[in-house]
């Protein structure tokens, strides 16, 4: 991930928290068409959570704004 090397921690966290929130909405609205896409995006979401948890374990929880 180039972002890890190029971004400051706050920028990185904000970017990927926003992506995680968008994915949650897409999953809730069932916007993914097929099982492979659901699995791919679920894996992407899980990877984001894992990376954010390495920065701070609190990011593994669903946070409200």
Task: Write up this protein.
The chain has helices at 2-6, 9-28, 35-55. The chain has 65 residues and is mainly α. α2 packs antiparallel against α3.
Question: In short, what is this structure?
Answer:
The protein is mainly α. It contains 3 helices and no strands.
Helix content: over 70%
The assigned structural class equals: mainly alpha
List how many beta strands DSSP finds: 0
Task: Tell the overall outline.
Answer: elongated
Mean pLDDT: 88
Q: What is the count of structural domains? A: 1
Q: Give the H and E element order.
A: HHH
Number of helices: 3
* Low-pLDDT sequence parts: none
Classify the beta-strand content into a percent band.
Answer: under 5%
Q: How big is the Rg?
A: 12 Å
Biggest sheet, in brief? none
Features:
65 residues; mainly alpha; 71% helix
How are the SSEs ordered, and which strands pair?
Blueprint: H1 2-6, H2 9-28, H3 35-55
């Amino acid at each position: 991930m180039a972002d890890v090397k190029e971004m400051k921690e706050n920028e990185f966290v904000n970017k990927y928290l926003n992506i995680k929130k968008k994915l949650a909405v897409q999953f809730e609205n069932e916007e993914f068409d097929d099982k492979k896409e659901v699995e791919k995006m679920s894996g992407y979401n899980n990877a984001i959570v894992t990376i954010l948890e390495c920065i701070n374990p609190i990011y593994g929880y669903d946070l409200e704004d």
